[in-house]
Amino acid sequence: MTTQDGIALSELAKLVDGTLGGAQATIRQVSSLDKATGDCISFYADRRYRADLSNTKAGGVILTAEHVDDCPVPTIVVKDPYYAYAKIADHLHPRQWAEPGIHPTAVVSDQAQLGRDVRIGAHAVIEAGARIGDGSEIGAGSFIGAGARIGPQSWFANGVTVERECIVGARAVFHPGVVIGADGFGFAPGAEGWRKVPQLGRVRIGDDVEVGANTTIDRGTQGDTVIDQGVKLDNLVHIGHNARIGAGTIIAGCTVVAGSTNIGKNCTIGGAAVIAGHIDIADNTTLMGMSAVTGTIREAGVYSSPIPVQPVQQWRRNAARFSKLDEMYKRMRTLEREIQELKSAGQNSAMPNPNTQAEDRAAAARSTGGASS
Amino acid sequence: MTTQDGIALSELAKLVDGTLGGAQATIRQVSSLDKATGDCISFYADRRYRADLSNTKAGGVILTAEHVDDCPVPTIVVKDPYYAYAKIADHLHPRQWAEPGIHPTAVVSDQAQLGRDVRIGAHAVIEAGARIGDGSEIGAGSFIGAGARIGPQSWFANGVTVERECIVGARAVFHPGVVIGADGFGFAPGAEGWRKVPQLGRVRIGDDVEVGANTTIDRGTQGDTVIDQGVKLDNLVHIGHNARIGAGTIIAGCTVVAGSTNIGKNCTIGGAAVIAGHIDIADNTTLMGMSAVTGTIREAGVYSSPIPVQPVQQWRRNAARFSKLDEMYKRMRTLEREIQELKSAGQNSAMPNPNTQAEDRAAAARSTGGASS
Amino acid sequence: MTTQDGIALSELAKLVDGTLGGAQATIRQVSSLDKATGDCISFYADRRYRADLSNTKAGGVILTAEHVDDCPVPTIVVKDPYYAYAKIADHLHPRQWAEPGIHPTAVVSDQAQLGRDVRIGAHAVIEAGARIGDGSEIGAGSFIGAGARIGPQSWFANGVTVERECIVGARAVFHPGVVIGADGFGFAPGAEGWRKVPQLGRVRIGDDVEVGANTTIDRGTQGDTVIDQGVKLDNLVHIGHNARIGAGTIIAGCTVVAGSTNIGKNCTIGGAAVIAGHIDIADNTTLMGMSAVTGTIREAGVYSSPIPVQPVQQWRRNAARFSKLDEMYKRMRTLEREIQELKSAGQNSAMPNPNTQAEDRAAAARSTGGASS
Fold first, then answer.
1. d(Cα A114, Cα B240) in Å, to the nearest integer?
2. Which of A62, A358, C80, C250 has the largest count of CB atoms under 10 Å?
3. Packing angle between helix C312-322 and helix B354-367, nearest 10 degrees?
């Protein structure tokens, strides 16, 4: 049964091991709760859309058992509606692959090795020694450098670059403008200016990795930059040379990972985070968007750092105060001492505050080290 | 009269409904006040260039009435010199369009629809079902996906991508490396790792939109990502899936708008701002550069947030204090109580400070919610 | 002697004016200390790798005299090991250039001027009036606009854009996705919305400049955007129109330099820094990563600004306090006055604190100006 003919809601329930509730329906597409019509399937997983659920006209809704009674139309009950939705949406709307074959305008080296059923788009360039796995698609104008290897069933949009010798696993999804394996940023200062340090490593990317549009992952200086299995990177992310991103870690748009940093497994990193070089981030760490990470994070947890916007006059005053925050702290400490003395004077007793003294020593130690300590 | 022959200053004054003051001149080009020669026209709209005005050798200067006496050369008096300058500069130096026609190396599907007088550059790819409006130019190596629609009189530089089914209005200006309609960043967590959520929506872009180099706008998950009429986006901006940018809003370089966020009309957003997902920004809001927006902004106004740089030793001490700012606040509050008690003791009366108590409750409420509350 | 045959360690020592210590070895490649085998040369310049030095199996290690005794294998002693390493690595692993010639799929205007021994990759486009210097390589799919000039011995990866009339010096290294000379971001507000201000300047780039993947440098509005000799830019950097970057300045990934800003010579700018428009940065300034620069920096020094991440609950409380930091300051000042009064009461004397009064005036002045003052 094709999508055009529609699929029975009961079939979709089976696909996700869900329980069908209510009448049968024929489903042709997915939709949001508020825009769905009778041939659409929707999902409910976020309380913000509670009103949309009550008013939906979908042919079926994927949800958890506790919300069945709130839904006016047939349901598929599962434990994880969003995951089940992803599976069903994929089934109803599979990615469109090009027809197998090599476009006549593509430039493919006769020393490249192409697997079975590959698709090579118009104006793509595949250099000598490159290998493209079975069933993979290399989009129009993409560039696969000499000796690079792309695993099977990978899908590259137009305008993707994988530089020489880099390795990409199976089922990769790379969006337009992705650049894998440009030189890392390494220069040695000398009397005549900066001297380029040759970037001799590669980028090695595991299976099931997705990389967003215009994201760049630099090749290593000596060893490799490594993106482990199942990593998902959003658009305009920058991964510096010799960084390593652990399996299952997900990184939202415009995040910067500087060189030689080691991010653990299954981390969740929000957009526009900035992670300094030569540090470690523990497995399972969550960084909220706009996090500034200046030092190693040893313990998994949820971390954050931005100063949220304020009306500009208020911001000006607060930012000006921030620039003297340490001084302000010291004045406060002076007050604490003075009050202590006043109270003591009242009690005929003037003991120094031991907590305050310990803090003095700690602050002195901190001011010679990093702010992240 | 061509630009090479020059245009009378009086003609330019007419073009912008301005008043000519001083002698006639023949103008061939625009220039800044300090570098202008007798065949140049300049404008004055910023006090920082006051000295340049006094010393200019331009053939004419566009300015407001109040500055006529400060100008040693002929003038065109208007209400808005910068706007008038833009119009005159456009007249003297119109954008160079390619000759109409399809470059022989372009790959254009015979199922694509091309309007009259279109220009298709070398190695461009136009897929089946795509439509290009009358007079539009698609630069070298650009990619227009299946079913995408580009309005008339649009100008795309080389290396622009518009993915399948996306819609772009009239008079668009897209710079190199722009990626419209790559998949949004949506993954559902499951036992076997992240599962891709198909991104089934489009990007819909209104008329008169300009998009800067290497900027990315992702397609929607179900519904569309929408960029309304007259929006201007600078380079390396990222717009997440299902975001909406209201008409006339202008966004400077490297700003990040996360998914499902709704930015109002006529907003002015500085560079490197970061706007969280699933929030609203009111019409006419101004965000200064580097603003971190973590929650909805309901009232138009001018907002800001960065901590400006300080000498590094000072920054270290202040940043260390920031990490204990709440504790510092609490110590200050203790001081307030103690002083109150000392004063009361002097007055034989010890009432608690009601303001301080109310703040305690407010702070407790805040610490369980978002920082943007 | 080719690299495949290997090079005597003594030869490499001569190349860098170093002193050989220990037995001779034949070197074929560079490697890190921990992974090196007997035909590898490594370097030691960072205490973090002290243990690797003691255990290395390299054929030779480049280091300073003071560490010779810590090294179990032959050594090359120099003053600057990293710089010497860069030179040796370059010698052992020189950049691979394409064979001279024009790929048959390239589109080269017959009005373009190509120097001797140029390499033009597949699908590259060279427009009329463009000039490519002797021995330069223009990678696959790159675009050189009308009238642009590229100096000799420059190396452009695939997918590089240099727009019309822009100028690039000798020995440039540009990585994939670089966009030089897209329009600057200039719009004049008017009754009918934003009107584009034509961007009529160029980008002028000196000799020995390297530009990272997907970095964008906009053309000037009237005058030029200028990148001086020896500047190194990492990936995803944005340089706005009419900015100037002084000779020898190095800028790490994802940094933003807004329009008309003038950065001095030999500055070191960390990743993800943001530098506002229309300001100056003194020669030899160092900006640490994530610096927010909102105003001119007149004195060279090391500057920084990020708030490092904290556990999210702590961050929420501190960020909430920050939004009232000025109020907190004022409450502290009130405390200072009150204590003064209490102490004075004890001493039968109540003089106001003159320091506190001066600060009041300074704060009032600041709140009407910029936060960077």
1. 35
2. A62
3. 140
> In angstroms, rounded to a whole number, what is the distance separating the alpha carbons of residues B284 and C101?
55
- How many Cβ atoms are within 10 Å of A169's Cβ, its own excluded? 22
Q: Which two tokens stand for residue A32?
A: 């949001």
Look at strands C7-8 and C26-27 and give their pairing: antiparallel
Asked if B320 is an interface residue toward chain A (Cβ–Cβ < 8 A), one would say yes
- Residue partners of B93: CB distance under 8 A and separation at least 6: B3, B29, B30, C198, C200
Q: Which two tokens stand for residue B203?
A: 């990007």
Residues in chain B: 373
A214: left (phi over 0), alpha (psi -120 to 50) or beta: left
Residue-wise pLDDT for B321-368, tens only, equals 999 999 999 999 999 999 999 888 876 543 444 454 455 555 444 444
Residue A331 phi, psi dihedral angles, 5° rounding: -65, -35
d(CA B293, CA C288): 23
User: With a CB-CB cutoff of 8 Å, which residues 29-88 of chain C face chain B?
Assistant: none
Contact B141 A122 (CB under 8 A): no
In degrees and rounded to multiples of 5, residue C314 shows phi and psi of: -65, -45
Distance CA C169, CA C180 (A): 13
Which of helix, strand or coil describes residue C368? coil
A7-8 vs A26-27, strand pairing mode: antiparallel
Any idea which residue has 């001490």 for tokens?
Answer: B317
A206 closest CA partner among A154, A241, A163: A154
Query: Which two structure tokens, joined as six digits, stand for A106?
Result: 């593509």
Q: Which residue intervals of C323-353 are DSSP H helices?
A: 325-347
Is there a contact between A263 and A275 (Cβ–Cβ < 8 Å)? Answer: yes
Token couple for C291: 């610096």
Mean pLDDT over each residue of chain C, to the nearest integer: 92
CB B149 within 8 A of CB B186: no
DSSP label of B293: E
The values of phi and psi at residue B346, to 5°, are -60, -35
Considering the entire predicted model, what is its pTM?
Answer: 0.93
B91 is catalytic: no
The beta-carbon neighbor of B200 closest among A30, A157, A229 is A30
Residue among B203, B298, B199, B212 nearest B255 (CA): B212
Mean pLDDT for B43-49 is 93
Using alpha carbons only, what angle is made at residue A213 by residues A208 and A215, rounded to the nearest 5 degrees? Answer: 80
Q: What is the pLDDT of residues C327-360, one digit of tens each?
A: 999 999 999 999 999 888 876 543 444 455 455 5
Catalytically active residues of A, by annotation = 241
Residue count of chain A: 373
- CB burial of A94-131 (b: ≥16 within 10 Å; e: otherwise) equals eeeebeeebbebbbbeeebebeeebbbbbbbbbbebbb
Which residue do the tokens 């080389």 mark? B158
Residues 6 or more apart in contact with residue B341 via CB below 8 angstroms: B350
CA distance C27 to chain B (A): 42
Q: State the pLDDT at residue B272.
A: 98
Interval A218-254: pLDDT, tens = 999 989 999 999 999 999 999 999 999 999 999 999 9
Neighbours of B, requiring at least 3 CB pairs below 8 Å, are A, C
Handedness of CA A49, A52, A56, A58 (dihedral sign): negative
Strand duo C302-304 + B310-311: pairing? antiparallel
| pLDDT, tens digit (0-9, with 9 covering 90-100), for C95-124 | 888 899 999 999 999 999 999 999 999 999
DSSP β-ladder status, B262-263 and B280-281: parallel
Q: Which two tokens stand for residue A61?
A: 């809704």
> What would the two tokens of residue C61 be?
């290690």
**Is a pLDDT exceeding 50 seen at residue B9?**
yes
DSSP-assigned states of every residue in C95-141: PPPPPSEE-TT-EE-TT-EE-TT-EE-TT-EE-TT-EE-TT-EE-TT
Give Cβ neighbours of residue C194 (< 8 Å, ≥ 6 apart).
Answer: B230, B232, B248, B250, C187, C188
